[in-house]
Amino acid sequence: MSDFNTGATAGKLSALKRWQKKTLWILSVPVAIMLFGYWIHEGLTVNKDYWPNGQLKSKIHLSVIGIFGKTPWGKEQHWYPDGRLEFEGNWDDEGHLEGPQTWYSEDSKVLDTWIYHFGVPDSGQRRSYWPNGTLHQQVTYDENGAWDGRVLRMSQNGSVLLDWTYSHGVPADGTRTIYYEDGKIESVFVIKNGKPSNVLQYWTDGTVVENISIDYLRKIAVEKGDTTGGTPRYHNHFVHVGDDFDRFLTRLGAMSGE
After folding, report:
1. Rounded to 5, what percent of the chain is helix, strand, coil?
2. Domain coverage including residue 223
3. Measured between alpha carbons, how far is 196 from 257 in angstroms, rounded to an integer?
4. Under a CB-based contact definition with an 8 Å cutoff, are residues 48 and 58 in contact?
5. Kind and range of the H or E run holding 115
6. Count of Cβ atoms closer than 10 Å to residue 121 Cβ
7. Considering the domain boundaries, does residue 96 fall inside one?
8. Percent with pLDDT over 70 in the chain
9. CA triplet 184, 164, 146: central angle to 5 degrees?
10. Number of domains observed in the structure of the chain
């Protein structure tokens, strides 16, 4: 009798579990549909911004993915206050820059054009221009978006400011010069093993501003204010070590135009 009751109870419990699973599955379907509907319920929207004069300032298409927020998708445009186009670009459906991204001057001349694939600048040559239409910069990129080949930078009057050669983001060894617009030397970088080992900076009158030497093995940079003649502008002597050495290298990269 006891065994029979135990078996009957077990059977009831098994039937109850099957009913619970079935009920849970039935209830989970509308819940899943509801969540999926919430996830995609808004689809695409357009975000607009305006200048104080009422002119449209920017417009970008956004993919709204419920609780996951908004992601750029499609065309993005920006305008000057007078309504002329300033920028036009595109985003793919994953929120990456894709295709040509173009900037325009206030008189509608092309200033710069980048071509992207999956958020990375396309390999090949890219040119940007000054508002007067003269060449500003000509750069060649590799497939990872790093400078590769000749990097040429020009002033608005057509003089060369920088003319360096890179290999996959690394400057070629040798002496590299940066010029002022009038053609006088601004900086001279001595590159060894792809890194600047010595840097000289000049005033426009040719007087040396700073003499910088860098030891990457010991992580030490020595920065001296100096002159080669005439009235000294100032004198200093800084030694950069540790975290300050890393910060100094970041500043040095900005000095070199990178």
Report:
1. 20, 50, 30
2. 173-258
3. 13
4. yes
5. strand 110-117
6. 19
7. no
8. 71
9. 140
10. 2
